[in-house]
Amino acid sequence: MILYKGRAQCLVVRDGKILMVKHDSGDYWHYCLPGGGIEHGETPEQAAIRELKEECRVDGKIIKKTSEFADPFDDEKFFYTYYMDIGNQTPALGIDPELIENPILVEVRWLSITEICEKDRAYLWSAGLVSIKEFSEELDTWSKDISYPDKI
Q1: Per-residue pLDDT reduced to its tens digit, 49-86
Q2: Are the C-beta atoms of 32 and 105 separated by less than 8 Å?
Q3: Which of 63, 74, 107, 110 could form a disulfide with 17 if both were Cys (CB 3.0 to 4.6 A apart)?
Q4: What fold is seen in the domain 6-139?
C-alpha cells in the first residue's frame, strides 16, 4: 500500500467563478481551495472528495487531476489538486474536523479571478487553474508587459 502525505484540494468552477474557502486564524486570513490533509490509508482522490464534503457540504466527482507538486516546506509531502464537478449543488460552510475547538474555516464563497488577491491567485495557478479552458483562454488576453507587485 502506498502511503500518501500532504494536502488534497478541489478546484470547482461555476459560471467563471472558483469555489473558495476563507480561513481566519485571528491574525491572518486568506482564501484557498477546499482541501486538507490526506489521512492514513487514503488516496489523494479520496481525500479531495472527503474534504470537499466536510468543508463545503457537497459531493464532488473528479473530472481530472490538475496538478501535483512538492510541498516547499516538507520534501516528503505533496499537494494534489483535482478539478471537480458538483452539479447544481449549493455549497455551504462546513467544518474542519481537525480544528473543531478553534475553527478557522469562516466562509465558503464563489469568487471570480479578479476578486482574489495576487498572493492567493498565485496558488491557484500552481494548482492547475491554467488547465481549465476558460482560464487558459483568459491568459491570452493578458498584457505582455512585465509587472510585479510593489514591495513595501
Answers
A1: 999 999 999 999 999 999 999 988 999 999 999 999 99
A2: no
A3: 110
A4: Nucleoside Triphosphate Pyrophosphohydrolase (3.90.79)
